[in-house]
Structure formats: C-alpha cells, structure tokens
Amino acid sequence: MGRKRRHTKAEVLEIIQRLFLKLGMPPTVEELRAALKVGSTRTVQRYLDWLEEEGDIDRWSGARGLRLRRGRTTDIATIRVPIVGTAPAGALMIAEQNIEGWVQFQKTGLRSPHATHFLLRVVGNSMNKAKVQGGTIESGDLVLVRQQATADQNEVVVVLVDGQATIKRLTRGSGYWILKPESTDSKNKPIVLDQEFQIQGVVTQVLKQGSKLIK
Q: Any residues with CB less than 8 A from the CB of 91 and at least 6 apart, and which?
C-alpha cells in the first residue's frame, strides 16, 4: 500500500475473524469495508493484497473467496484452533485444505491446553437444550472439540456414524451405547450403537453465534 494505513495487520485480521464468526462464512469486500469503516472497496482490496503478500490469508475467485491461514504468534499463552466447517459427511480431516479459518484462544481457558482442538459449526436443533459450561448448543454456534478417540459417559461428543459426524450426548445401556439428543424438537431421536463407532472428540465449550473472539 502506497499510502499510510489506517489499520494494522493485526486489526484487519481480527475484524476478518470476527466477521467469520458472526456470518458463519468468509466476509465479502463490502462487509469488510463496513466493518473497517473505510470509504471504498479499493482500500479493502489493498488491505487484502497486503495480507495475502504477508502469507496471512488465501484468496480465490468469488465474493467470499477468502480464508485465514494459521499465522505465526510469539505469544506462548495463546493457541490457534482451526475451524473445520460444519459436521460434514465422512471423517473430520483437520488438514490445511479443509480449514475455513482460525480462532485464537488463551491456553489457560482450555481444560487440556496441550491437546489437539478443532471447531465445528452446529447445524440443526438436535442439541439446543444441552449445555456445555453453561452455553446451549444452538444452530449457527461454534463448538470447541478436544480431539480424542474415547469419551466418558454423559459427555457431549462428536461421533462418526454411518460415515457422518453428529453431535450428541453419549450414554450407556446394557451392552450398547446411546447417542442422546437434547432438543426442543421431539423429531430428534436417540441413536443406539453397538461397540463399532468412532468418537472424533469431546465438546468442551460453545461459542455463541456472533460472539467476539476469545483472546
């Protein structure tokens, strides 16, 4: 950028991340212009060119062709957690090409700061009565998941069933397991499982739709 920048790189990246959490998708140039409070989309394009040159974002064609990259941080008290989309069909692949963005957390705010975590966006109302650390799990929210292959009874888990990931509470019957919905909609029914199922992780926190980033 040939002229003096109104915003620092960190400020622009933070605004992009906040918009992503609010919208559930990358922001458009016009949405960024309004959030940055600048007069033209050309100014926004210059900021995006700058971030791309610095290796902080990836861009491609399309109004929402934008993705935050991992980035580097020297703050040892924080950790960046990837957003891997909604509960998709197939195994959850935490690979660079599947990551939509990153959210920065304080390590002290994580129960297991050295474990691998990822974020999923909730779709549907099958767990809208469930609470994790006081937060209900509603459609559009992000859930923080600690990646692990086992879980204790009554934990809220992400489980792969018939090739699809689902978020439910894990309970046990006599010789079988139950994935229990906690919903205001009676159409959501429990899923009975034998011993052959794949736990992807345990939900440890809920980020409400439109919430600010945890720093």
A: 160, 165, 198, 200
Q: Which of these is catalytic: 126, 131, 174, 211?
A: 126
Q: CA 148, CA 110: separation in Å to the nearest integer?
A: 15
- Give the mean pLDDT of the chain: 81
Residue 75 has pLDDT above 50, yes or no: no
The tally of CA atoms less than 13 A away on the side-chain side of residue 56 is 17
pLDDT (tens digit per residue) in 90-101: 455 555 556 777
Task: Report CA-CA distances (Å) from 21 to 142, 176, 192.
Answer: 8, 37, 33
Domains of the chain in sequence order: 9-68 (1.10.10.10), 78-207 (2.10.109.10)
What is residue 74's predicted lDDT score, i.e. its pLDDT? 40
Is the confidence at residue 127, as pLDDT, over 70? Answer: yes
139 assigned to active site: no
3-state secondary structure of 203: strand
pLDDT for residue 16 is more than 60: yes
Q: Which helix (H) or strand (E) holds 59?
A: strand 57-59
The one-character DSSP state at 107 is: G
* Pick from 127, 170, 175, 126: nearest CA to 151: 170
Assess whether 126 carries a catalytic annotation. Answer: yes
Residues 168, 174, 180, 212: which is the catalytic one? 168
